[in-house]
Amino acid sequence: NPVFMLDEIDKLGADFRGDPSAALLEVLDPEQNHAFSDHYLEVPYDLSKVLFICTANDLDPLPPALLDRLEVIEFGSYTEEEKIAISRQFLIPKQIEAHGLKEERIEFETPALRTLIHEYTYEAGVRNVDREIANVLRKIARLKAEGKRYPRRVTAKQIGRFLGPAPFDEMRANETDEVGVATGLAWTPFGGDVLTIEVAVVPGKGNLTLTGSLGEVMQESAQTALSYLRGHADDFGVPNDDFETFDIHVHLPEGAVPKDGPSAGITLATAMISAFTERAVNHDFAMTGEVTLRGKILPVGGVKEKVLAARRARLKSVLLPRQNERDLVDVPAEVREAVEIVLIDTMQDVLSRVLGPANADPNSRLTRLRRERDERDKDEDEAT
Q1: Least C-beta-crowded within 10 Å: which of 32, 123, 281, 360?
Q2: Catalytic pick among 263, 317, 352, 364
Q3: What is the pLDDT of residue 382?
């Protein structure tokens, strides 16, 4: 009864030499692997007592037949507090001993660890945290070897001096209320992330332009959000002529990063409605959820990682579909206390919380364009 560890099973590749996943179908099936026959030796093996443990970063590449034979246990992202605790109990002592600094009693202040986690790493685990701690201690070991002064307590300021410019910006969310700009949440293999969705309304012929390396599902979400807006245009005070005389440009920054999935539906709809009504979106809110043509909000995945991303970006509130309430048990208590979780059922629930008052400026850009369009249409009618 040995234990077999199959690491990175999602990296299996099929080519002209065969498909390894096809062989695993029989190996991992307890109903038939008691008499597994190897086609090279033609000798039957009893694999029914073997415990197979497989690891994968992503389940999508696995064939459905193989995935059906596995019991999936998902490990979520570490929280900030968990990363700090792991660093103090395991990573720092290990690296201090490895760099010959055990007698110096080097200590890392908590703000220093927070800076290292927020600004120098972006991951679900702690592999890069361990690497950056080693980089800091390596610099200290060099100072000691050269006979120079070195710190015994590492501060947040010294983290920047040892590691150089931070590769990750801690504040990635919007800092002011803006028209046509909404904050969404996304799941990635490295943890949660914050998405800024921008919508611009420009004179045109009613075309919808999508940029930012959007996948097919996200493009369909944008089409659904636009159809919802057009279907409820009267409720929002948007003239129907707008959809014939204005082009809509939807853009998600960081265009080199592919983005896909339906969970940005309510964010896309909010940004579009804000752009057409000229009502600013509250920048303290982040949101995630799939929207339907009727304005219903459907549940999404990756709730824990998304809420952690909102906290990392210092957002005050997160809008979640009500059906995702069951997933909040995975969110640590300290995170739920730091971020207000608002459960929503419809787009009206979203708009009532995030959209500001109506723009009363008669000379606003969109109002001016509409007035010019109406005057032009009137002149053409009189000329006719």
Answers
A1: 360
A2: 263
A3: 76
Q: CB-based contacts of 360: which residues, under 8 Å, 6+ apart?
A: none
Q: How confident is the model at residue 18 (pLDDT cuts 50, 70, 90)?
A: low
211-239 per-position pLDDT tens digit: 988 889 999 999 999 999 999 999 998 88
pLDDT in tens, 109-125: 999 999 999 889 888 88
**176-180, 224-228, 293-297, 370-374 — which is least confidently predicted?**
370-374
317 carries an active-site annotation: no
148 tagged catalytic: no
User: How does residue 177 score in pLDDT terms, banded at 50, 70 and 90?
Assistant: confident
